[in-house]
Amino acid sequence: MRSPRGTLETGGALLPVDADNCLAVARERESIVVGLLPFDPDEAPRLAVPETYRWISRTDDHADVAPVARPTGSLGVDSQIYRDAVASAVRRIHDGQLEKVVLSRALELHYDDAPLDPAAVYANLMALNPTAYVFSVRDESTGEYLMGASPELVVGVDQQQFSTRPLAGSASRATSTGPTEDAQAGEALMKSAKDRAEHATVVDDIAQRLGPISRELTVPPAPSLVGTPQLWHLGTHITGILGEGLSALDAARAIHPTPAICGTPRNAALHLIRELEPYDRGFYGGLVGWTDPDGNGEWALNLRSGRVGPRTATLCAGAGIVNGSTPGGEHHETAVKLSTFLAALGLTLNDLAELGQ
Questions:
Q1: Is the pLDDT of residue 61 over 80?
Q2: Structure pTM?
Q3: DSSP alpha helix (H) spans, 16-79
């Protein structure tokens, strides 16, 4: 995992641990806790203590993009199922059943002629997303790699001081048409009543969840613009001091899943996601990160991500559905979000048209 701290690499055997005793085990082994929290809070985390770990200084921000195999087919480029799910969600919101739900869709790429090289894909994610939290985790049960370039730190803790920067509300960037048009796209997002309301809901929810476990909590009154290569986001940098004896993992579990990845009210949104999405998210939309025995750590959202095997790559992306959302608009937003991982595969959305469904 790469973050502003550097790149974290683990080695040797992984000792699976429970969330309740993981820090004690890490302390005994003079190591750290690494792993994944699933999207669904009712499912079990996958945490482990590695035999070895090391931090490497960041030197890869200007690396070249490596060539990778080309796909021979795809499934999910155009998804009527997703548009129908958005329409259903909007009706539920109009009926007052909930305020927001985040619906995701999947895109599957097939590689029948030549296998994918996960190492090359990961290197490309690092090179193309210099400010992101880039990660790669091997699934021992399947041999696939879960990897991505997340723009969002859910919680970071250093000596009990924590920070979180929720992102909610987004718009496509206009970098191809020039800096003036790109700046105007960001300004329009800042002025969007729909996006500002969606963002405020996320910030309020996180502040309420962090309040009981914090000694201090600072929430800026307004969001700022956060840019990735593909999108403008609204982001708010929340800071504070954790309660005595609490860790980054404790804070992450307290606020996950936030309305930015689930919706509000949480239980109603979870129920609707289980009903409308035609697949189990698993660790997509969950958290990936680490915590040391002193409670320091970083946990980022598993976004702009995919599962990479030698013959398939499955990408996921979601969008927040609120009053005023449209099926076509949300389908387009998810397509733009998919383009982050597609770039690491050497592809654009236009490249997929010839592959079929």
A1: no
A2: 0.91
A3: 22-29
